[in-house]
Amino acid sequence: MTTQPQHAGTTPLVEMRDICISFGGVHAVDHVSIDVMPGEVVGLLGHNGAGKSTLIKILSGAYRADSGEILVEGQPVQINSPRDARRYNIETIYQTLALADNLDAASNLFLGRELTNWLGFVDDDAMEAETRKIMARLNPNFKKIKEPVSALSGGQRQSVAIARAVYFNAKILIMDEPTAALGVHETQMVAELIQELKKQGLGIILISHDTREMLALCDRVSVMKNGQLVATERVEDVTEDDILSMIIMGKKPEKAA
Amino acid sequence: MTDVSSSSSSSKVKTLRGFKALELDTRLLGMIGAFLVICIAFNVLTDGRFLTPRNIFNLTIQTVSVAIMATGMVFVIVTRHIDLAVGALLATCSAFMAMLQVRYLPDMFGLGLGHPLTPWITIAAGIAVGTAIGAFQGWLVGYLTIPAFIVTLGGLLVWRNVAWYQTSGQTIGPLDPTFMKFGGINGTLGATWSWIFGGLAVLWVVWLLWSARRAKLSHGFPVKPVWAEITMGGIMAAGILGFIATLNAYDIPKGRLRRVFAARGEDLPDGFSAAYGLPISVLLLIAVAVAMTLIATRTRLGRYIFATGGNPDAAELSGINTRLLTVKVFALMGALCAISAVVASARLTNHSNDIGTLDELRVIAAAVIGGTALSGGIGTIYGAILGALIMQSLQSGMAMVGVDAPLQNIVVGTVLVAAVLIDTIYRKRTGGK
User: Transmembrane segments in this chain: where (chain B) (predicted)?
Assistant: First the structure.
């Protein structure tokens, strides 16, 4: 917390510049720019339909922007598919969790990146062993490695989704409402994990409706309304009320400090 | 089903105890149970004619064509699609292959009737045609996003009549003698080779069990106790050898043998007898089943098929090209239709215009009775084959008992619905799997 990232001098881990996308005439994202420094958590706030999820889906490759630029570590990149995003170590944990319910935790963790043996066949045992290892670190209570994830609780499913991002050495982690479906204890666990990943130098983009939680977890917050960026502020410069007025009224708070 | 959570965090390899140690698949047990009940009931009703080597032989060769297609239908249904055109596609492939070996190759390419290359060129070309048509339908579904129901409903009409158009509705035959060996009764291994095959199959099963156990141990996972492994291996070995023994017990009729010897200019020696043994078509089904099971459980393609069926969005976001996957699944289905066409036309020794009629319903029913969920994501290859076997047993059993044709179909239809109902209840009870 003491070493704040300096904007001048260092390159952002990822930078989205002037991003626009519209669906059937509706400007879902309208000239929005955000950036994330290494070891920084940037919060994305706004009403439902403000364009937060759409914006991060452009970064994770689910949508293609109509215009604008994405830079990873200062280099302009093309992200046209989830596969591209993964190649730049951008990992996403979706609101809807994006797990295949009928498969077990190991299959979900490695989905799209299965470990194979020398014959090219999927090596289930190796994947199970790796899953056990990472789960022992992230969520030691997690035992249902072999059961379909439909049999898991919200928190357990979330740990599978997080494990997937962590296992593949994400540099940039996008979390879309990671605590929405979780209980108190599990929410605390995710908060601790975010601090841990931050220390390792990951850049994290966090989406949540919980303003208080965002102020606790984030270094900066960006507020969106009707597809446009209202403002990006350092959390120590704003109060909860300031943020609420930005979300609701779409206005920057009066700068006092 | 069984709880394999190792509380001692894998410092000590834990083993399971009691009946649970067998780690039996209760669904598979249920289906085998249903199959045995059907067999025994018909055996009683027919005064022991149902479970004779001869009838079991016939039952297996009648099941092959539908069973081969049912394995492909599992993948189609698992990815939340349907294929109503398999029977028609079988007819198109069959017509094409029949015309190729009887007309085109001899007339246009100058390969004489019975040329050794004829059957192999025919089969390769037939599979190519089936795969191409399947891929085309998959492209319509995956890339042009027309619902599979519509694409294949159209395909049902189109391919059925493409078959008709190719042959002008005529029955094409007789087919190449080597080609006909894939039909069943015309091509069997004989007793000795059947035993050799059975022995190899037993060795293979033992090796599979042993290597799976070794892999588990090397990662420190819990394993079954040794007695459970031996019991499972013993049951499977007994099943394989029992099946071979049954088929070997069906002797080739004297009249047929006499003709075989006469063709070689010899007389049938007194007291000579020979068994049919394992039909080549069944061998083909076994090969298809093994290959499809490998694809389903051990390849990325299979993993993606099941992931897409479970949650298409998750699959897409995981970087899986679900459109191309749809093309692959339908192309595979098309290839299997062509292989089925080889078996079906070879069994009839000719191509007839109505070949494969209503097969789409039998194939879908076999997959569904075998536990494939129409909601996607769930299904097994062995289940579909067992489903095909159950359907065929019901059908031929009722025919042997002398049930009227309309009643037969009423029963089969009812069984289909009841099987899905039981499966639904079972899934709810066990919390979905």
Answer: 28-45, 57-78, 84-105, 117-136, 142-159, 189-210, 230-250, 271-296, 329-349, 361-385, 405-426
Residues of chain A with pLDDT under 70: 1-9, 95-97, 253-257
Report the number of distinct structural domains present in chain B: 1
Residue A63 in domain = yes
Looking at residue A59, which CATH number applies to its domain?
3.40.50.300
Q: Provide residues of B within 8 Å CB-CB of chain A.
A: 4-5, 9-10, 215-216, 218-221, 294, 297-300, 302-304, 306-311, 313-320, 377-378, 431-433
pLDDT at B10: 38
- Does residue B30 belong to any structural domain of this protein? no
Of B10, B219, B317, the CB nearest to A98: B317
CB contact under 8 A, A148 and B221: no
Give the mean model confidence (pLDDT) for residues B99-124.
Answer: 85
- Does residue B172 form part of some domain? yes
Question: Whose structure tokens read 């067992």?
Answer: B386
Q: Which domain holds residue B406?
A: 53-187+280-429
Residue of B nearest to A99 (CA): B314
**Nearest-angstrom CA–CA distance, B74 and A191:** 43
Nearest to A102 among B4, B306, B431 (CB): B306
Q: Considering its fold, how many domains does chain A have in total? A: 1
- Domain membership of residue A67 (yes or no) is yes
Query: Cβ(A93)–Cβ(A157) under 8 Å?
Result: no
In this prediction, what percent of chain B has a pLDDT beyond 70? 94
**Model ipTM value:** 0.80
Distances B380 to A47, A78, B371 between C-alpha atoms, Å = 45, 40, 7
49-88 of A, contacting B, C-beta below 8 A = 60, 62, 81-83, 86
Mean pLDDT of chain B, nearest integer: 87
Q: What CA–CA distances, in Å, run from A213 to A68, A111, A158, A217, B162?
A: 30, 31, 18, 6, 65
Residue percentage of chain B with pLDDT more than 90: 51
Which residue type occupies A184?
V
B interface mutation test: which of A64, A102, A110 has the most B CBs within 10 A? A102
Quick one: average pLDDT of B348-376? 91
- Nearest CB among A98, A107, A114 relative to B313 is that of A98
What are the backbone dihedrals phi and psi of residue A207, each rounded to the nearest 5 degrees, phi first?
-110, 130
Predicted confidence at residue A93, as pLDDT, reads 84
pLDDT(B380) > 90: yes
Answer for the pair B67, B370: CB distance below 8 angstroms, yes or no. no
Q: Is residue B375 part of a domain?
A: yes
Q: Domain limits at A204? A: 14-101+168-249
Q: Is residue A205 part of a domain?
A: yes
Retrieve residue B261's tokens.
Answer: 């010897």
CB contact under 8 A, A132 and B10: yes
CA distance B380 to A19: 46
Whether A76 maps to a domain, the answer reads yes
Residue B318 C-beta-side C-alpha neighbours within 13 Å: 29
Residue with structure tokens 């706030």? A45
Which residues on chain B are in Cβ contact (under 8 Å) with A97? 314
Residue B416 is assigned to a structural domain of this protein? yes
Across B175-182, average pLDDT = 89
Could A125 and B215 be called an inter-chain contact, meaning their C-beta atoms sit closer than 8 Å?
A: yes
CB contacts, 8 Å: A81 with chain B: 319
